[in-house]
Structures are given as structure tokens and as C-alpha cells.
Task: structure prediction
Amino acid sequence: MNNIKTQTHKSRVEAILNGEDPGSFVFAPNLWQWFYHHKHHKSLPREIAHCESQLDLIRYLGLAVFSRNVYSDQTAYWFGGLADCSFGDLDVQIKQETVGSDIHTRIKVKTTAGTLEETLRYIFSDSTVVQDTFLLADYANQLDAIEQFVQKRRWTFNTKAYERTVDEIGDDGCLIAGEFFSPLKMLHLILGPVNTTYMIMDFPEVITRMCETHEKAQLDLVEQMAKAGVPAMMAMDNLDTAFHPPYYINQYCASYYEKASQICHKYGSRFFIHACGQQKANLKIISDLGIDGLEGVAYPPMGNVSLLESLEETHDRFIITGGISATEIETLKTKKAVFDYIEKLFTELKPFRHRFVLAPSCNTPINATFDQILWFRQAWMKFKDI
Result:
């Protein structure tokens, strides 16, 4: 490994993306849900009350940006904002209404084979979006309609939104385009994980066609972004062996992951997967497919593998982000506990500093205190050069 210039957060993140030593440990927090929850509830500490966005807060803390949601609308969806979705000649209607403090979104898709409806609800009290009903409610009787939907759906890279966000970030880090999801995640999003399992058993040929169609459309978007020079992309799959067992990965995700990675590498980009839960059984599979990294790897009990194991069991350019899960927020309640944890973590992972980014595993819980956020930042400052 060769040291390169490290005078900006951007150069440090770019060093990791290039497999080089960033010179010190990189800390890139995900404060998206935490920040907007407290901003919307008017409970931001006075010290950061002037911040208008997550980016403002990260910049105030003097930390790095390596984010797939710095540009996303927290009230609208879990991810997205850099790609425009179209549906060909299908009639798609999206209506929103505010009920109390919550935002209800109804999506109606009219096809020649019938109408599909999905309802989403942004819950103000929890600052999160939930699916109240899935687009595919009765798969046995809506097969033609859902196939039309998948066949017609396409994405176009919104270069203006991307360039605007890159300009906003500047030298504070790098944007991750978190616009993607695998064929298996596509099924989870339109009918839920449980019904996905049933539909796979009941209609395997339809599932195969839908997955192939979705993969082709998504890979087109990957290529659009890679050609435009987007440095990192991420499939927002919530990878977890509970919902993504190895057999399903090989059957419904492997082709997509491998081809997306190959396209990214052709243009000098990197392809990641958002992880959330247990990873151990899938690590070698994911690594062998050429994936560049996992976002949000967590220690037990949230996960089932240590960060050191994750790094040791994957290829020598594989990047892991994580280290601060809800478990750490729940258990590390003093400054000393946080400092002891970070010192031990950085000491253990020092040989992998070029492949690791300290970050929340999934997100920063809304019940985290600002003191805890500051303690992690202070601990990083003390031990980043360990």
C-alpha cells in the first residue's frame, strides 16, 4: 500500500476506493434519520440548531461524507433521488395527503391486465417510511399486471441532481449512488419477503422472467452512471441471510451483482451492497462475485460476524463500513466506554485501514444522544492515527 495525499476527506475516501492507505482511519457517519427526526421535532441541540441538512451536520463535526442518502428525501422513501423512473405507456398515478403529521402516499398503476396499488406512510413520530400495502396484493391473480409493470419500468440517471450534490459535498467526501436493488429485492419491495417465497415456489417461470427483466433495466442504469463517472454505487438490498439465503443469492442475485460490478470496474467505479443483519454465510459468495464492499456490517447480536472476520474472509480490495450499530448506541453509555471501544476496534483493524470506514451499521438510531455522537467523533480524533 502506498500513502497518497490525505489533506481532504475526499482524498481519504478516494484512497480507500482505490485500495490505498488513507493515512488515518476514516469516519463517515450516517446521521440521516437522526438529524431529520430531531430537526422536524424541533429537538436539535442548540449547538447544531443552525444545521439545515445532514451534510451541514457532518461538516460541522469535521467528519467525512461517504453517503448514499445525503441527497435523499427522508419523508418520501428509504433511498433514491438520482434516477428518474418511467413506466412507458402505463398510467401511473401518485397521490399524497397529510393525515395528522403523517404523509400518506398512494401509488396506482393501471395496466391492460388490471390495476395495482401500493400505499406508503411516513410516520412522523418515528421519522420512517412503512409500506402499508404492497403493489402485488394477490399474485395468483395479478401475474400479467405485475409483469407489465416490471417490463415497462426504466430508470434514467438525473445528471443535474448528481452534479448538484457533488458540488455541495465538495472536498468533504464522496457520494454513493444508492439507487439500485437486486431482482430479489425487487420482489421483496413489490410483494414482501414472505409472499416472495411463496411466489417463487408457485410460479418459478414468472419469477425468472421478472428477475431477468429487472436485471436488464437496472444494469442499464448502472452503465449510465458508471459512464458519467459516479465513483461508487450501492444496491439497497438490506442483505441478510434471513431474507437472502445463499441459495436465493445464487439463483436471483448473483448474475446481477457480478454484472453490475463488472460494469463499474470497466469505468473505474465501485459497487457496494447495503447490509443489514447476518452476513457470514454470504460473505464468500459476495466476495467471489466481485462486489467491492458491504455497508453497515454489525457485530452480534445485530449481525453474526465480526468486522475483522468480514475483512479476512473477503478479497483484498473488499471494503467494509460499520462498527457503530444500535447495539453500540444502546450499550456504550459513557465517554470512557466509547473511547475504549474505538481504541480496541482501531487497534484490531489497523492492518485493514485501507479497507474500512467507521460508520453506523444501517443508521444512527433516533434515540442516540448528541453526547454519544460527539464521543464517537472525539474517540475517532484521538485514535484515528493509531
